[in-house]
Amino acid sequence: MKEEGTISEITAEGAKRPAGMKYDILIAGVGGQGVVLASRILALAAMKAGFRVSTAETIGMSQREGSVSSHVRIGDEISGSLIPEGKADLLIGLEPAETIRNLPFLKEGGKIIVNSHAIPPASKPPGSPEYNPGALLSYLKTGFPDFFCLDFTRLAEEAGTYRAANVAMIGAAAGIGILPFSKEIVLAVMEAEIPEKHRAVNRAAFEEAIKKIKLISTSQDGKQKVKSNV
Asked: Where's the Pyruvate/ketoisovalerate oxidoreductase catalytic domain (predicted)?
């Protein structure tokens, strides 16, 4: 018998989850980095875990190297496809400047995973300052305690292809336990969604990111901290 206010459901994977759970993920990057694929993997993993999901993309003027963001809303009480400002539980930034650009969406206490590999803008207005990704990363490190940083592009390249950086970042999120479903569910979705010839390298990047994020994580005063490795 289910009691009012404590209703839970058994998912297809056999795990209990509380009713009323809500988790919002914003993925930000530039064209060509695989933002939409990353959001699809996360959305399908959430659905496989038994959650309701809503997604939406915003795409800049340029197909490549223009701003791209994807909103993944997970849970039973979703209102609209776009995450309101100040409500995202997790911001996955595939590029430093795009991470900064989307900070208004992050809620207080929300977590950030950022790829330190920078992609300078294709063009900039005359007189504008030079792009300084190091300064952006320092700002994030100083201002946001739940900030996780790696050069995921280099990590993915070492695994076989730089194009798997998006999957590596999902692996990092799974590795620090901040997704509302298991890494096994994510891997099952990857197996179904990624073409066979690319599966091995994507899985390698995913698993290596889990190892790296755990290596740079430390536990202090009962709270997980991380040292940025840029």
From this structure: 31-210
